[in-house]
Write a structure and sequence with these properties.
This protein is 53% helix and 15% strand. The radius of gyration is 51 Å and the shape is rod-shaped.
C-alpha cells in the first residue's frame, strides 16, 4: 500500500509538472525571441528619421555609428536620380529578401548564418523605399532561455521529490497500523491470546483495530467459558466413575475383572487430564521436539490386547500385522492410543457381532501407515463421515476428527476407503519428516507387508 501510494503520487505530480513546465518553457523561449526582435526594431527606428532627411553616405554612417549597432546594422538605399544603389554596413540578408521588403513595404525577418535579420522598410524624402537590416544573433534570441528552463526543471523536480516524500509519510501512517493489525491477527491465530493492537492511525484502521481488540477479548472470554464448561462436565463424571471403580473392585479375580478395573482406571486418568487441560490458560498445542513420539507397534499391541477380550465375547475374528518391530511415529503415546480406541470403538459400535477386523502397521523411510479395516457394511459417504460433528445416533461424530487432527499434526492425513475384508478401511498416514503427502495415491517409500489371506 505504501509503495502504491508513492507511485500514484509520483505519476500524478509528474504529469502536473510536465503539463505546466513544458508550455511555460515554450512561452519563455518565445518571450526571449520577441525581446530580441523588439530591440532590433528600436535600433531600426533610430535610423529612420535620418533617412527621411538625408541620403548622404557620411551622414548615414554617423547615424548608424551613433545607434551603436554599426557591426550588426546595414542600410540598403535604392538607386535614384542617377545615383547608384548604396549599401552601408555588412549585408547578411539575401538580395531577394531585401527587394521583397522594398516592394511590399512591410517588415519581415529572414534566417541567416548565425541568427536572423530584421528587414525594416523606411520611406525616403524622394518617395523611394530604403531597407534597414538589423542582425539578431542566435545567442541573443536564446538569451536567458537555458537559465529559465533550468529553473523550471529544478522547481518541477523539487515538487516531485516533495510530493513523493509527503506520500511516503502518509503511506507510513496508513501502512504501519495495518501491519500491526496483521501481526496481531497472526499472533492470535498462533494461540497468543494476549495479542492486541494499538488503536491509532486513520479512522478506518482505528475502527478495525477496535474491532480486532474487541474480537480478541471475546475469543478469550469464550475460550475461558469453554474450558470451565469442559472442566465442570468432566468433573461431574467423577461420581459415576467412583461407583464404577468400587463395583470393579468387588468383581474378584479373573481376566475380565482385571480388564474392567484397568479400563476404569484409564478412564479416570483421561478425565483428570481433561480437567487439568481445561483449567490451564495456555493451549496444549506445543510442537513436539526432537526425539518426541512413541512406538506405534507397542501401542497397537497394547490396545489390541485390551479390545481382544471384547472381540472374543462378541465372536469377532481379528488380526494384527506389522507390529513385530518398533515403529516410531512423531505423536504422543496417549494421543495415538486415543485415536486407535476411537477407530476400534467405531468398529464395535457400528458393525454387527461376529464382524472381523484387522489392524496393520506399515513402516517406511518417510511415513508410517496404520490401517484399521473391518468386514462390516462400509461407510456410504466417507466425506461426510470425516466432517467434525457429523455423527449419527449413538455417536458424537468426533472420533474420526480426532484421528484426522492427529495425523495432520505430523503433515499426514486420513483416508477412508474399502478394505479387502469387504467393509471400511481407515488409512492413517503419519508423515515422519513433516511434509505433506504428494496425493491420494502416494505411497512414498513405504514397505507394505503382504496381508495374510485370512483373519484370526
Amino acid at each position: 500500500m505504501r509503495w502504491a501510494l508513492v507511485k500514484v503520487c509520483l505519476a500524478v505530480t509528474t504529469m502536473v509538472v510536465v503539463a505546466f513546465a513544458v508550455p511555460l518553457g515554450l512561452v519563455v523561449k518565445e518571450m526571449a525571441r520577441d525581446r530580441a526582435f523588439s530591440n532590433a526594431e528600436r535600433e531600426a527606428a533610430a535610423v529612420a528619421p535620418a533617412l527621411s532627411i538625408t541620403t548622404e553616405r557620411d551622414e548615414l554612417e554617423r547615424v548608424v555609428a551613433s545607434a551603436g549597432a554599426d557591426s550588426g546594422m546595414a542600410v540598403h538605399l535604392p538607386a535614384a536620380d542617377g545615383r547608384p544603389a548604396l549599401d552601408l554596413g555588412r549585408r547578411r540578408a539575401a538580395e531577394r529578401d531585401v527587394e521583397a521588403v522594398r516592394r511590399l513595404g512591410r517588415a519581415s525577418t529572414s534566417s541567416v548564418t548565425g541568427g536572423s535579420t530584421l528587414l525594416q522598410p523606411v520611406a525616403l524624402g524622394s518617395g523611394a523605399i530604403a531597407v534597414v537590416e538589423v542582425y539578431v544573433p542566435e545567442s541573443e534570441v536564446s538569451n536567458g532561455v537555458g537559465t529559465a528552463w533550468a529553473v523550471l526543471a529544478a522547481v518541477g523536480l523539487a515538487l516531485i521529490v516533495g510530493s513523493v516524500a509527503v506520500a511516503d509519510r502518509l503511506g507510513v501512517r496508513m501502512v504501519r497500523p495495518a501491519q500491526r493489525l496483521v501481526e496481531g491477527a497472526h499472533e492470535l491465530g498462533e494461540g497468543r491470546l494476549g495479542a492486541r493492537v494499538p488503536e491509532d492511525g486513520p479512522t478506518e484502521l482505528r475502527l478495525a483495530a477496535v474491532a480486532f481488540n474487541s474480537m480478541a477479548d471475546q475469543v478469550v472470554q469464550l475460550l475461558a467459558n469453554e474450558r470451565e464448561l469442559a472442566a465442570d462436565l468432566s468433573h461431574r463424571l467423577r461420581t459415576p466413575l467412583t461407583v464404577l471403580r468400587l463395583n470393579a473392585a468387588s468383581l474378584g479375580a479373573g481376566p475380565a475383572a482385571e480388564q474392567t478395573r484397568t479400563a476404569v482406571a484409564q478412564l479416570e486418568r483421561e478425565v483428570d487430564t481433561i480437567i487439568r487441560t481445561a483449567r490451564e490458560a495456555k493451549p496444549q498445542t506445543a510442537a513436539a521436539g526432537p526425539g518426541a513420539g512413541c512406538d506405534a507397534a507397542a501401542v497397537v499391541r497394547e490396545r489390541m490386547e485390551f479390545w481382544s477380550a471384547l472381540a472374543e465375547d462378541e465372536g469377532r475374528k481379528w488380526r494384527v500385522a506389522g507390529v513385530e518391530r518398533p515403529v516410531r511415529v512423531p505423536v504422543a503415546r496417549a494421543d495415538l492410543a486415543a485415536a486407535l480406541d476411537a477407530l476400534l470403538g467405531n468398529v464395535f459400535r457400528h458393525t454387527a457381532e461376529g464382524t472381523a477386523f484387522a489392524v496393520d502397521v506399515h513402516n517406511g523411510e518417510d511415513a508410517v501407515i496404520v490401517l484399521v479395516s473391518d468386514a462390516g457394511p462400509g461407510i456410504a459417504d466417507p466425506v461426510a463421515a470425516m466432517a467434525r460433528g457429523s455423527g449419527s445416533a449413538g455417536s458424537t461424530g468426533l472420533g474420526l476428527d480426532i484421528v484426522r487432527r492427529l495425523a495432520e499434526s505430523t503433515g499426514g492425513d486420513v483416508r477412508i476407503g474399502s478394505s479387502v475384508l469387504g467393509g471400511t478401511e481407515v488409512r492413517i498416514w503419519f508423515q515422519l519428516d513433516g511434509r505433506k503427502p504428494a496425493g491420494r495415491g502416494h505411497r512414498g517409500s513405504v514397505r507394505r507387508r503382504r496381508r495374510p489371506a485370512g483373519v484370526g
